[in-house]
Each structure stands twice: as C-alpha cells, then as structure tokens.
C-alpha cells in the first residue's frame, strides 16, 4: 500500500515537473515580456523617433536572436536545457530592468540586443526541453496546454501593462516586469532533466534531405513575417488610426489572448487523432492571412476586434500545428537543433516583417502585404503533405 502511494505521488510529481511547471514558467516569461514590450513603440514614438528608427531598433532583437538561437538549439541536445533556460531568464530580466535607465538610442539599442540574447537562450532551451520530456502519448493536448499558457501570458501582459500605465510611467513598468520573473527563475531549477544522447552532425543531415522538411521551413519563415509587422505597427495602428488609449489597447491584447487560448485548446482536442493534422495547417494559414489582409479595411474598434479574433484563431491553429510537426518530423534525441533552426527562421521572418513595417507607409498596408504572403503558403502546405506521404510510404 505504502509503495503504491509513493509511486502514485512520484508519478504526480513527475507530471507536474514535465507538463505544468514548464508551461507556467513559459507563461511568466511571456507575461513579463509583453507587459512592457507592447508599449515600447509608443514610448519610442513619444521620445521623437521616426517610424523607420523604431523599426530599426526593433530589428535588433531579431538580429540578436538570429545570432544566438541556432547555437543554443545545438547545445540543448548536448547540455541540460533547463539550466540554460534559467540563465536566459536572468539575462532577460536584467536587460529589462536596465531599460528604465536607458538615456539614448545607443543604450536602448544595446539593451534591445541583450533582450534578444536572453530570449534566444530561454525560448530555445525551454521548447527543446518540453519536446524532449513530454513523452509520446497525447501530444496534441500536451502541446495545446503548453501553447495556451504561453499565449495567455502574451495577452495578459499588455492588459496589465495598460492599466499600470494609467497609474505610473513605462520606466516603472520595466522594474515590475523584471520582478515578475524572479520567482520563476528559482522554480526553473526544479525543471526535469532531459536524457541527452549527443547526436552527430550527420544525423541532422538525414532530416534536412527530406523535401517535406524544406517546405515546412519555408512556411515557418513566411508565416513569421506578420509577427514583425505586428511588433512595429499594431500598437501604433490602434493609437494613431483608431485613437485608442493604453487601457483600451491592453483590453484588445487580453481579447487576443483569450481567443488564442480557446482555439489552441479546441485545436489540441480536434487534432489529437492525426500525427500531423492537415486541417490545422490549412485553416491556420488561410484564416491568419485573410484576416491580416483585412486590416486594410478596419476603421473602428469593433471591426478591429472582429478581424483580430478571426486572425488569431488562425494563428492558434498554425502555432499548435508547428509544435506538433516538430515533435513528429524530428526524433526527440535531436529535436534541439530543429527547434533552433525553426526559431532562427521565425526570427528572420520577424525581422523581415519589422523592416516591412518600418518601410511601408501607414500602419495598415504592412498587414495587407503580410496577410497575402501568409495565405499564399496554403499552396506550399499542399506540397508539404504530398512529400510527407511519399516519405512515409
């Protein structure tokens, strides 16, 4: 009896370490980061920077991520990814805290690069750790819970930040954001340890010879373009085009977060019967792209909410498919390098989107361009599934 109870408790603790703890730590990162980052474009605009300068500053984070993400992905197959994720949170928190003292473009640029490096270390290692330790059963729902908490943090952070802006300024929010991370840095030392097999470089080459993998990588890059456009233009679109204030902008991000969580969980339940579910990818690309393009025709807050809910439903489907595909296309022993590679491509696409957001006139046109490119990826998705069927027969 005692032995059975001990085994039951041990199993429950193992599930807590493998599923819930990583999910809540990822939530804390997104909550803390988005609490201040969603409002940085407004802060920079008020200091007198042009749209092009804001776009260039935001491009520094993707550049830092491009430099660090792939190496961290390779390292996560060889060294404990949980410890590296904790170090990334420390770097991120320190950079965010020092943002409150940044006195010019040069200092801000340096701290943006630090935020990028910390983010690369945290995201890559945490995603790699989760894919290595989550096990083979019920992958869709496990990834849906992991993704939904990320996305809830993504929306809840700006919601809280918007209300804090009513009582204080952005510099104080930098300090609050850094403080939120502190307890989760301590908890990160309880993360499970992954079994490391240290694969050879030739093993990775086997994966890259598959045409389905190349189609997947192209979709990852193009889809990410709209992330960069959103970073540069979305908050400014709400403020300049629709005349919204900080708390109203925060409310919009909360609606986005709730929508992401809902559709991620529904997609996880619906996609559980297929190893790589095609409807998730097709619907995700078409909904996300079509309703990003529809931003060209948004002239009121109610139109914005309708368009963003449908767009975000597509994002949720795609993002869940992306994680499922990583787990299915690559063996867990060497999934760290593909995590790093796809993250690098996501960052490169985000960088391209930042440049598009800064170069094109207005705050709506960049959404139209990014939306058209995303919807066009449905054709590449058809090739992806065709190649995948041939490779598995």
What does this structure look like?
This protein has 393 residues and is an all-alpha fold. The protein contains 14 helices and no strands. Helix 1 crosses helix 6, helix 3 runs parallel beside helix 5 (105-133) and helix 6 packs antiparallel against helix 12. The longest helix has 36 residues, at 2-37. The chain is globular and about 55 Å long. The termini are far apart. Mean pLDDT is 82; it is low at 1-10.
Structural class: mainly alpha
Rg calculated over all Cα atoms: 20 Å
DSSP strand tally: 0
Please provide the ordered H/E string of secondary-structure elements.
HHHHHHHHHHHHHH
Largest β sheet strand count, sense and barrel closure: none
Helix content: over 70%
Number of DSSP helical runs:
14
Mean pLDDT: 82
Strand content: under 5%
- Overall morphology: globular
Please mark out the parts with pLDDT under 50 across 5 or more consecutive residues, or reply none. 1-10
N- to C-terminal distance? 48 Å
What are the SSEs and their pairings?
Elements: H1 2-37, H2 40-46, H3 51-76, H4 81-99, H5 105-133, H6 139-164, H7 170-187, H8 201-208, H9 211-241, H10 246-270, H11 278-293, H12 301-329, H13 336-359, H14 365-391
Helix pairs in contact: 1-5, 1-6, 1-7, 3-5, 3-13, 4-5, 4-7, 5-13, 6-10, 6-12, 9-13, 9-14, 10-12, 11-12, 11-14
List keywords for this structure.
disordered N terminus; mainly alpha; single chain; 393 residues
Short characterization:
The chain is an all-alpha fold. It has helices at residues 2-37, 40-46, 51-76, 81-99, 105-133, 139-164, 170-187, 201-208, 211-241, 246-270, 278-293, 301-329, 336-359, 365-391. The termini are far apart.
């Amino acid at each position: 009896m005692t032995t059975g109870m001990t085994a039951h408790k041990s199993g429950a603790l193992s599930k807590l370490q493998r599923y819930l703890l990583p999910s809540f730590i990822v939530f804390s990162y997104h909550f803390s980061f988005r609490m201040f980052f969603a409002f940085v474009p407004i802060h920079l605009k008020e200091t007198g920077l042009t749209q092009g300068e804001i776009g260039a500053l935001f491009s520094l984070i993707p550049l830092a991520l491009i430099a660090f993400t792939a190496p961290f992905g390779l390292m996560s197959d060889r060294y404990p990814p949980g410890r590296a994720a904790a170090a990334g949170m420390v770097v991120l928190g320190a950079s965010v805290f020092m943002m409150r003292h940044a006195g010019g473009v040069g200092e801000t640029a340096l701290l943006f690069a630090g935020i990028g490096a910390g983010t690369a270390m945290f995201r890559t290692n945490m995603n790699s750790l989760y894919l290595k330790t989550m096990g083979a059963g019920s992958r869709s729902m496990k990834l849906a819970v992991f993704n939904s908490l990320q996305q809830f943090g993504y929306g809840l952070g700006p919601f809280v930040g918007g209300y804090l802006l009513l009582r204080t300024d952005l510099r104080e929010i930098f300090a609050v954001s850094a403080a939120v991370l502190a307890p989760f840095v301590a908890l990160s030392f309880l993360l499970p340890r992954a079994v490391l097999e240290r694969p050879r470089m030739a093993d990775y080459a086997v994966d890259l010879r598959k045409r389905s993998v190349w189609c997947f990588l192209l979709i990852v890059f193009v889809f990410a373009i709209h992330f960069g456009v959103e970073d540069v233009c979305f908050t400014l679109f709400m403020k300049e085009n629709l005349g919204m204030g900080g708390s109203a902008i925060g409310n919009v991000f909360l609606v986005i977060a709730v929508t992401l969580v809902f559709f991620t969980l529904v997609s996880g339940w619906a996609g559980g019967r297929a190893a790589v579910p095609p409807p998730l990818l097709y619907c995700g690309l078409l909904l996300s792209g079509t309703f990003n393009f529809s931003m060209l025709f948004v002239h009121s807050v109610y139109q914005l909410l309708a368009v963003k809910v449908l767009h975000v439903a597509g994002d949720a489907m795609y993002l869940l498919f992306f994680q499922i595909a990583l787990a299915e296309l690559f063996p867990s022993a060497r999934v760290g390098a593909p995590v790093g590679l796809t993250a690098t491509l996501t960052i490169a696409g985000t960088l391209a989107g930042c440049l598009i957001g800064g170069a094109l006139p207005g705050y709506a046109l960049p959404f139209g361009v990014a939306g058209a490119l995303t919807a066009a990826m449905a054709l590449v998705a058809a090739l992806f599934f065709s190649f995948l069927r041939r490779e598995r027969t």
